[in-house]
Amino acid sequence: MSLGVIASGNARTEFVDINVASWAWLATIGVIVALLLFDILVLNRHEHAPTLRRAAVETVAWVAVGVAFGVAVIASFGSGAGGEWFSGYLIEYSLSIDNVFVWALILAYFRVPAQYQRRVLFWGVFGALVLRAAFIFAGLALITRFEWMLFIFGGFLLYTAGKLLLSQDDAVDPSQSRFLKIVHRFIPTAPELHGHKMFVRTDGKRFATPLFAVLLLVEVTDVLFAVDSVSAVLSFSKE
């Protein structure tokens, strides 16, 4: 199974070195976008509170997509590249658990009904793909030019791990978010939800709904969590 791309080893570095054709990048991005659109426009076209069974099935399906991509990487570039992919996948999956807990607290604080939570998280993840891509390319540019940046990334990971172990305060209060206060100051916000709408028009004026504030807060927390998770991946792969 070949993707028409060239894989080449590099004896001067511990990382794999592969060259990916432009069409393969476009095809990969196209598949990702298609899967996300299928998720939101077909599988979850109508708002509903997800059941545990459906959530489990969809989770297994998304994991299967990730595993299938890893198999394609191995078939096209070899076991070294596949090893880096699966290592990064498992690390990111484990590091995503704290994101989920914080998002659950945010959704609970704003009392977002279960049938609307998926829409908020979907667009939150969609935006996170763009933001994390920027993080990754910036990190790669730094490593390529300054290899010693790897030690800084490693030190930051040790710092966040120590802070997590030694922290005595596990409570998170979304109402104390400075970012949220800034949003309310500059963006007129309606006091109550209006279904799944992010914006509404009242008396000729346009207002954001609390759902929009929740979406922005989800995006900001994801950016904060991306700092350590992207650093973790860049510590053992540059592809």
Q: Quick gist of this model?
A:
With 239 residues, this protein is mainly α.
Task: Give a topology summary.
Layout: E1 6-8, E2 17-19, H1 22-43, H2 52-77, H3 79-109, H4 114-145, H5 149-166, H6 178-186, E3 199-202, E4 205-208, H7 210-234
Helix pairs in contact: 2-3, 3-7, 4-7, 5-7, 6-7
Question: Which features would summarize this protein structure in a list?
Answer:
mainly alpha; single chain; two-stranded antiparallel sheet; 239 residues; disordered N terminus; two-stranded antiparallel ribbon
What does this entry look like structurally?
- This protein has 239 residues and is mostly helical.
- The protein has one domain.
- The strands form two sheets. The chain has a two-stranded antiparallel sheet. Strands 3-4 form a two-stranded antiparallel ribbon.
- The chain is globular.
- The two termini are 20 Å apart.
- The relative contact order is 0.13.
Distance between the termini: 20 Å
Q: What kind of sheet is the major sheet?
A: 2 strands, antiparallel
Low-confidence stretches: 1-12
Q: What is the global morphology?
A: globular
Query: Count the helices. How many?
Result: 7
Structural class: mainly alpha
Helix content: 55-70%
Record field, number of beta strands: 4
Strand content is 5-15%
